[in-house]
Design brief:
Helix content: 40-55%
Number of helices: 4
Structural class: alpha+beta
Number of domains: 2
Amino acid sequence: MPIPDPWFSKELSVLDKDLFAAWHPKIHRWQIRLWILPHRKGDERLYYVWKRRSMPSRTVCYRDGEYYDIGYHPLDQRVLYALKLSIKLALKPEQAARMVDESNKKLEDAWAADNADISREVAKSVWTHYREPSIDLGQRSAR
């Protein structure tokens, strides 16, 4: 079983002493886990121990636009940054709500702009069609 780099484990314990990184052999991904039961030093290396005495906090992987797991991601500074940000936002829920509202506003504005462009094109084609003079004489008989 892979063991995380010592610098990563040290930085993780600075964030919270009960956090640790473990390689999950069944899903083939790193997991950031939280101890929920008493444990000894080195228990994070034994799958059968940490599987029962801890709970997953995060699974480290690449995600697509629909939030599906699409691949392996190594343990690096980006993982630590994401954990720090999530801890910070958990302590300040009003800031997290503000960030979500800003993101939703940007998405709504982009959607409205796309719909305005489509509506403008449809209006131009309808306007052009009705401005052209035409006479409808009906169907012609085949005599």
